Every structure is written in structure tokens, then in C-alpha cells.
Amino acid sequence: MKCILLVHGSLQMGGVETLLVRLAREFSARGVAVRVLLFGRAADPRLLAELKQYAVVAYLDELISPPSFGDARLAVLAGLLSMRPAAKRRLLDGVQHVHFTESLTMMLCARLLECTETPLRVTGGVYSQYEFVYPSLRPSYCVSSLARHFAFHAATGRILFFGGVVRKLVGEHIGRDLSACPILPIGIDLKRHVARDPGRVRRMKLVAIGRITGFKSYNIHFLTAVAQLRRAGVPVEYHVYGEGDAIGGVRRRIDELGLASCVHLHGNVDYNRFAEVIADAGLLVGSGTALLEAAACGVPALIGIEAQPDDRSYGFLHEMEGFAYHEQGIDHPLTPFAEHVERMLALDDEGYRRMCEASVRKAQQYSIERLVDGWLALDERLVAAGSGNAAPGLSGPRFVASLLWERLALPLGLDSGFWRRFGPGPDSKR
User: How distant, in Å, are the alpha carbons of 28, 276, 330, 331, 410 from that of 302?
Assistant: First the structure.
């Protein structure tokens, strides 16, 4: 592979977005040229500046006509209908491998690669457990098209999974054996994370860092643990860094539980300040790459299970086997958050030091180098198989009309849930 194109929504701060930067850095270090196509121009400035050190960044509105006036949603709709052939050729010139990160980027890739003269290898990644498990209550054209395209890529072994549980879940949902799809670790840059001194830690300080959105339900449920601990006379304080569409619910729950004096909402934090923010934390609760990066710094990483309906957790990252850790359905006991926090607080200094060291050791399994090794192995397999960019057909106008119907049906109560979960608007889970 000499050049890879990564297709994503936007570069606002989040786990997949920081992963794209790490991927670009590692691919570039291995002599692979990187291009990134983004739907929208909204971005974290420092994240974008770092990405541009390792990749050529393009935007969807550069491929379409007429202009979208800076609206990413209009750009997506226009791109699904038509892209300028000359602009597509320039973007794809020299590219051998194209990677999508979610549903709509998958469909944009299908439109982007139509009628290309050179076969390109196409892969995708399941970065959220439920991303490709589509609604089935009302199988509209857009939903059935998404399901058909994803099944094609998955059945031919082109989808990256980051845990066996998710691969099994998705395989059962689409009725296919996905054993040809590789399971790889989400990659973090271990060189950027130095273990902190456990002797400087304030163990009563509990921290969360990440996007506050609906499927990260632990943002609400962990407050129950804080309230239980405070009522039991344990003077914990909870510091939350992040913003998102569920922040209103977090604020309401804080008020309901009377936690205003001990729960502190700090808003977004610059990615470069991550190590500083957790330097004295007793533990970090969360999911995604933030959990891995905390563990790499020697912070006990308490797992927040995505879409979990109650205040239970698998426990700490270093206690898990394999790569999976924040998905539902892992064969591991579930225990309330408060019990895990109490267990950490009950350790003596030596026991806590060992917990921190175990966290660092576990994080070593998730190196960006290991992820890219697996990615390049997949690319070689696709080359050997002669895998090109053939995919099911797609009617752009019909897909856009169906997608708009999903959106416009919301006020009528007819929505299947598609647009809220996968659409690029403000009501999206992203």
C-alpha cells in the first residue's frame, strides 16, 4: 500500500478523530501516503493542525457542485447525488486503499468509487457497537441499501472489528459468518503516555473524559455511584471533561441527586492536556480510547459500558481478557460502579501501585503499531485475493429521497430511528 484515503465525518474532538491522527502518523512513518476526506469543516483546531502534518486533508464540498455553503448535511446529500468527475479523479489519484468509518461514509465511498478506472481496495471499521446494526421496523430504501452494502464488505472480510463480541453480534444480525474479518486492537500512541507517579494521586478524585452523548450512558449512571459513596461518608469528587448532546441530562441528574458541590463539569479539554488532567486522578471512568490512554498513564481505568441501562460495569480494564472492553455482551460479571470505586479506595499504597502498573501493562496490548500491522496484513490479503472496489449498485436520487423521508417523518412519529442514529445533523449520536 502506497497511499490510503480515510473517509470520515468531521474532525471535532472524539475517540475516532484522535485515532485518525494516530493512524496518519503511523502510516506516514511507514512510508504510506495518507489522504483524509472529511464531510464537514468543523474541527478541533489543534487536532486538525496535527493531522495536516501527516496527511493531505480534503473536504466533501470541494467535490460537489453547487456549493453547500459550509453545511455538512447539504454536502452529504449533494455528494450522494453527484460528484464532479475531475475532482474525484484528483482525490483518488495514486490511492490504492480507501477506508470508511461509519454508515454514511460507506455510502459516500460507494458513490466516490463508481466508474473508477483502477480497482481500489475498500475497508471499513466498526468503531461503535451498534453502528451497522440497522433498524428493521420499516426497511426503507436507505436502510436496506446500507444493510446490503455493509453485508457485502463484511462477507468479503473487509471490515475491521475491535472485539469478538461485536463481530459476533453484527454477524448474527446480518446472518453471515464474519470470521474472515480481522479483530484488531484500537491503537493508541504509547510513546506519548508516560506513567505518572502514584504517590501524587488524590484517590478521592474521580475523572471522566469524553464526548457526553446518549450511547455513553455511563455519564448518567456513574452519578448514582457518586451519590451512594457520598451518602456513605466517602468524600469523593467527580470531574467531568467533555461536551455533547446529553450534557443537559447530566446536569439534571446532578441536581436531582444534590451533587452540585462535588461534581464539576469542566467542558471540553484540549487533547494535549489529557495527561495533565488525569495526573492526580484516583481513577478514570469511560470508554473508547480515553480509557486506554488513561491506563497507559497508569490510571486505573474503570469501564463504562456503552448503552448500558444501569449503573453496572465489568470493572477495570486490566481485569479484562482480549481486546473487547466497553461493549455489551462480554462474558464478564457486572457489578455496580460504587463497588469498584470502593475496592480501589480500600487498597493500601502498595496495592494501588500494583493496580496502576497492571493498567500500564494492559494498555501495551493496544499500541498503534499493532493496529497498523494488522491493517497492512489485511491489505496484503486483499491484494492477493485480487479484491477490487466492486459493490452493490446504488441509486443516489432514491437513496437521498429515502434519507430525507427518514428525517422529515420525525414530526409525524414515523421515524425508524435511522437519522437520529446515523445522520450528520445535530441530533446525531455523533
Answer: 33, 19, 15, 17, 37
The values of phi and psi at residue 379, to 5°, are -60, -45
Report the C-alpha gap between 283 and 205 in whole angstroms. 7
Question: In a 10 Å sphere around its CB, with 0-12 CB exposed, 13-18 middle and 19+ buried, how is residue 186 labelled?
Answer: buried
Residues in the chain: 430
CATH architecture of 3-187+370-422: 3-Layer(aba) Sandwich (3.40)
Query: Which CATH number among 3.30.200.20, 3.40.50.2000, 2.40.160.40, 3.30.70.20 corresponds to the domain 190-365?
Result: 3.40.50.2000
Which has the closest alpha carbon to 265: 240, 248, 283? Answer: 240
Domains of the chain: which residue ranges? 3-187+370-422, 190-365
User: From the CA atom positions of the chain, what is the Rg in Å?
Assistant: 22
The helix/strand/coil state of 240 is strand
Q: How far apart are CA 75 and CA 132, in angstroms?
A: 22
Which three cell numbers, joined as nine digits, stand for 22?
494516530
Residue 64 CA to residue 37 CA, distance in Å, equals: 13
pLDDT tens for the chain, 430 residues: list them: 899 999 998 898 788 899 999 999 999 999 999 999 999 888 889 999 999 999 999 999 999 987 776 778 888 889 999 999 999 999 999 999 999 999 999 999 999 988 777 889 999 999 987 788 876 656 788 888 998 999 999 988 999 999 888 999 899 988 999 999 999 999 999 988 888 887 789 999 999 998 898 889 999 999 999 999 999 999 999 999 999 889 999 999 999 999 999 999 999 888 888 989 999 999 999 998 899 999 999 999 999 998 899 999 999 999 999 898 998 889 999 999 999 999 999 999 999 999 999 999 999 999 999 999 999 999 999 998 886 766 788 898 998 888 887 666 544 444 444 444 433 333 333 3
Nine-digit cell at 36? 483524509
| pTM, two decimal places | 0.84
CA distances from 145 to 180, 394, 404 (A): 22, 7, 14
